[in-house]
Amino acid sequence: MPTAFVLINTELGSETDVLKDLKKVEGVDEVFAVYGTYDVVAKVKAETMERLKEIVTVRIRKVNNVRATLTLMSSENAK
């Protein structure tokens, strides 16, 4: 199953709202508020790579108060 980690910059002070909105997006498996260069990290899973790309580009990037994203595609799942 294709998996990606999306590093997200939010508008100042909107981290909590972005977290709540991302939890509602289909395909977003986990969401974390983080400290550092990025404000939020989302783990995204989908049945196909095309669906994964759609979730990131169409759904996540259009969430209110998301300023920028950096997507890290997983090459494989370790067990």
Topology:
Elements: E1 3-10, H1 15-23, E2 28-33, E3 40-45, H2 49-60, E4 66-73
Antiparallel strand pairs: 1-3, 1-4, 2-3
Describe the structure.
This protein is of the alpha+beta class. The chain has a domain at 1-6 and 13-43: Lrp/AsnC effector binding domain/regulation of amino acid metabolism (RAM) domain (Alpha-Beta Plaits, 2-Layer Sandwich), CATH 3.30.70. The protein has 2 helices and 4 strands. Strands 2-3-1-4 form a 4-stranded antiparallel sheet. A hairpin with a 6-residue loop joins strand 2 and strand 3. The longest helix has 12 residues, at 49-60. The two termini are 13 Å apart. The mean pLDDT is 94.
The main β sheet shows up as: 4 strands, antiparallel
The name of the CATH superfamily of the domain at 1-6 and 13-43 reads: Lrp/AsnC effector binding domain/regulation of amino acid metabolism (RAM) domain
Q: How much of the sequence is in beta strands?
A: 35-45%
- Helix and strand composition category: alpha+beta
Number of strands: 4
Biggest sheet, strands in spatial order?
Answer: 2-3-1-4
**Shape from CA axes?**
globular
On the 0 to 100 scale, the average pLDDT is 94
